Each structure stands twice: as structure tokens, then as C-alpha cells.
Protein: HTH merR-type domain-containing protein
Amino acid sequence: MQKNPKPCINTGEFARLCNTNKRTLFHYDAIGLFRPAFVDENGYRYYSENQCDLFFTIRCLQEIGMPLSEIRQYIDHRSPEALRQLLEQQKEKVRQEQEKLRRIEQVIDTKLSLVALSRQPRVQGQIGRVGLEEMPEEYLVLSPPINTGEHD
Structure:
């Protein structure tokens, strides 16, 4: 049996360490994004603990919406300049997303204040004051007289 000279952990342990699941690791391996440090003759995958940093980088980029194909391209051609460009692009995307969320929050706040306003009683004019206004005759509407002895 072939032994790996570097200390490694199995797929399940690496998945727990990185707060993910084994299927994610299998998928990343299948698409060539993140390969195990060692695969034994039985096909068992093993990862070194120093791969955690790369895995977390992949997950962070994915979390902010970067497609796996672009992440793979970056991983395949890593350099300080490529990292700088990538981070600037992603920072701009995050800024745009924050602006979008800020606008959504503003709409929600406006709707909440309208709902609160609709629950307050509205009073037209002044209460307790009686006034008399003269109007032209065409605006005058008369009802028939009420001739009844019931005051209910």
C-alpha cells in the first residue's frame, strides 16, 4: 500500500474542519477546482490541513457570487496582481450589492411609515368649531324634511 509522506486527513474530517460537506469536495475535485492532496489506490481522498486556506478562499469567492469557472481560472493562474484585480472586482460587486440593498431598505422604510400613517386617525378641519359658509345656490342640496315624532 502506498503511503503519503505528508500528514493528511480524510474527506469527512476535512469537510467538518471547513464547515462543508463531502459532496462539495467531490464536486470541486470532479471539476478540477480543488483536488485532494493525496488519493490512495482505493480511491480514498486525503487533504492536508494547509489546503484549508485555499478552500476558504474558494468559498468566500463563491459566497460573493463569483462563478466556479472564474474561481478556477483564478486558482490556475494565481499571482499577487491577479489577486489584487480579483479583489477589486469583487469589492465593486459588493459595493453595488450594498447599494441595491440600501435602496430596498429605503423602500421598506417608506412602506412602513405609510402603514404607520394609515393607522393614525385623520381629522379633517378643526374639531369643536362650527362655521358657516355661503355657497352659490347651484351647490345647495336639500333633503326632504323629516316629520317624525321618533327621536331615535
Observations:
- The first helix runs from residue 11 to 17.
- Residues 90-117 form one domain.
- The radius of gyration is 35 Å.
- The longest strand covers residues 45-47.
